[in-house]
Fold this sequence. Notes:
The complex is a heterodimer of chains A (336) and B (545).
Chain A: H1 2-17, H2 37-68, H3 85-114, E1 121-128, E2 131-135, E3 149-152, E4 157-163, E5 168-172, E6 177-181, E7 187-191, E8 197-203, E9 216-221, H4 223-239, H5 242-252, H6 255-258, E10 278-280, E11 286-288, H7 291-299, H8 322-333
Parallel strand pairs in A: 1-4, 3-9
Antiparallel strand pairs in A: 1-2, 4-7, 5-6, 5-8, 8-9, 10-11
Chain B: E1 3-5, H1 8-11, H2 27-31, H3 36-65, H4 75-94, H5 97-111, H6 119-141, H7 155-158, H8 163-190, H9 203-235, H10 248-280, H11 289-302, H12 318-346, H13 355-378, H14 380-386, H15 390-420, H16 426-452, H17 467-497, E2 528-530
Antiparallel strand pairs in B: 1-2
Helix pairs in contact in B: 3-4, 3-5, 3-6, 3-17, 4-6, 5-8, 5-9, 5-15, 6-8, 8-9, 9-10, 9-11, 10-11, 10-12, 10-15, 11-12, 12-13, 13-15, 13-16, 15-16, 16-17
The complex binds copper (II) ion (2 copies).
Residues 168, 203, 205-207, 211, 214 of chain A line the site of one copper (II) ion (CU).
Amino acid sequence: MTFAAFLPLLAGAKARAGDAIPLTPKWWLPESASTFSHKVDTTFALIYWLDVFFFVLIIGAMAWFTIAYRRRSKDQKTSPVKGNHALEFAWSFIPGLFLLSFFGMGFVTYMDMQVPPADAMDVRVTGQKWNWSFEYPEQGLQLASADGLVVPSNTPVRLTITSVDVLHSFYIPAFRTKKDAVPNRYTSLWFEAKAPGEYQIYCTEYCGDDHSRMTSKVIAMEPAAFREWVAGQKSASASMSPVERGQKLFTAQGCAGCHSIDGSTLIGPSLKGKYGANEQLADGSSVAIDDNYIRESILTPNAKIVAGFAGQMPPYQGRLQDDEISALIDYIKTLK
Amino acid sequence: MSSTTGDLAAGHHGHDHGSYLTAKRGLMSWLFTLDHKRIGMMYLGSILTFFLVGGLLALAFRVELATAEPDLFTGSTYNRLFTLHGAIMVFLVLVPSIPASLGNFLLPLMLGAKDVAFPRLNLLSFHIYMLGAAFLVFTLLAGGVETGWTFYTPYSSTTDSAVVSALMGAFILGFSSILTGINFIVTIHKMRAPGLTWLRLPLFVWASYATSLIQVLATPVIAITLFLLVFERTMGIGIFDPALGGDPVLFQHFFWFYSHPVVYVMILPAFGVISETVSIHSRKHIFGYTAIAASSVAIAAIGFLVWGHHMFVSGQSELAGTIFSLITFGVAVPTAIKVFSWVATMYKGSIELNTVMLYTLSFLFIFAIGGLTGLFLATLAVDVHMHDTYFVVAHFHYVMMGGTLMGFIAGIHHWWPKMTGRMFPELPAKIGALLVFVGFNLTFFTQFVAGSRGMPRRYHEYAPEFETWQFLSTVGSFVLAAGLFLTLFYLLWSMKGGAKAPKNPWEAKTLEWETESPPIEHNFAGQVICRTGPYDFDEIDTSRA
Ligand SMILES: [Cu+2]
Ligand SMILES: [Cu+2]
């Protein structure tokens, strides 16, 4: 058992040095960019090399026996061995110790990954088909970020994640972390980016047609640059006209993922030149596209389904303020 | 000889002991037969047919995945393809695979019995299987489903595809599985020939026994779960859909409570096959008989307590995650025992590198990789990174397709002479085995790398950095398909053109080789008596014991 306890210690020692143990097989893993990603990589590397060792042992023995004891003649005599208790005990017990130490290492790092530092900065993440939106309550930003998940580097960030429709999962490979987005429930995840840079975000819980397009970016900036970004966002939203605000919301709330503004059809109808026109509905009736219709389409989209489309749009009831809805309508009006 | 067929003259009443294949004629004599051998063969035919369908679906989306851009299918078609591939392969192929086909055929023969304990139930289980299959085929014709074979809620509660018929299909198939399980348990308890003690049972029988226990205990849970989902969809009763006040994570618990143990329903029978083939074709007594038999049962038991390892990032509590991780490592020990024992069995043997042995060695190679890569996923911190990436896809294909399928194909070849009365041609068979091995590893090893580098699964278009790995994987899938088609062709050909098989071509000691090839309708002409263990081959040098 001393041995099992030793490996996590080894990992911890290396972790302080700030890098994965040198033997980490590089081509197996993406860049390592969070404060705990190298600990994950160290665990990966230890399992990897033990796996290689056992694989060579097993397959080597198999290949050797296959060649050494191939059938040379029909009546070749074979050994009467039926088992060996000492050997059987050894090959249960020794791998068992390794397994326990893997468990221990995985557990220790997992707890690091689960428990955010108390001073972490909070960001709210909402998943919806097929977009991630990011809100900054602590910074007092009025609008969700349209630039991706902008965060200061070298600062712990805690994400509180939820979904408005089906399950999604928020995954940042370079940070080695991921967490499901569950409707009607909050999950959380934290990280600290080691350096400024752009890091890929994927959705890893299958969520339908555009699951593979539900991507975004973490943009880690020097803390000073981040403060500037926040200030820029604030002054922009203060001086923004309602149309500009609507345009920003249109991207940040994921409308743009399903509605084009150039006439092409995506998951939903294009909103180009729609305002004031008549819309054919799936039930055969038709309706004039005015402020009320758009408002209803946003809050309870399934109340009226456009002919030729499925009820894929998530309801925004409870997620948008009145002035935001008005801004969106003002923006849609301008799409000539 | 390990046994003798008792008093032939007395048991013989002068009627013709024709083979089970020719004893009765006509389609109805097959569709309504009570003969476990015919039922086994019908299962084999149906399972292989669905394997072909599921495989063709996979080839279609492998072509799409050869390049990063979406070029062949829309997202919604792609999603239907992988869902049907998964659902068909799991519910129609892997779950029934070895138990329903080889198991049905061999179990009574190995026990020296005339049939399974409940022949009518056995036929019913086949009819239920066909009914369930009809639902899945209907689903395909009704536009398909795109929920993934896992049917995660609330996606599956809300999408408007043919979810209900797919769920009903899986629900119905569960009963077929339960009936087979019950039948095997009772048969093994009650129908063993005189002299066939528990510790003389072939390890294939032990594996079938452990498998049956899981089938009987776990399948009702998934059946109820799927049924609740049907309720939710058709009547709007909120169980899993948060919009109706339900809990989507509850569905995952229910689902994996079945679907983890069912992994062992798929793999344990393959373990059973390999225990037979490695011993027989090495002419050595199996190494550590008791350990292998006991580890099957241990795996079956522990396998019920690890389902939460599919949910480390679902929002499940840290405590639960930790416990599930620990117990998962617990399953690795009995699994390792088996692998070591199979390799040790070859030590100082007389190993014939025939097709069966090639598949046995392929199994060991592939299953070793499948098992060892499982350790990354059982480790909490590493799984957080790997979960729902191609690493997981590669891992379960190494275990499920590599493990189960190599075992299945090894078994089909090993017992082909018994089942059909014909030998298969060795040369094309060896070429096929080579293609399957190379193709399989090319298809799925590359996916480990794509996955650990961060490529999520179920993606229809993906980042260009993964293109090389995905392209190689597609190439591999076609090599694999070529090997499997070759295998299909020579096996079909051999049913007419193959050399007539002797009673016991491998000089094995288990009871199924005591009867004719193919067996007579009632298996044995007289009462079978078992006199020695299943692995006491003539070549064993007992003077050195
Ligand atoms: Cu998704
Ligand atoms: Cu599992």
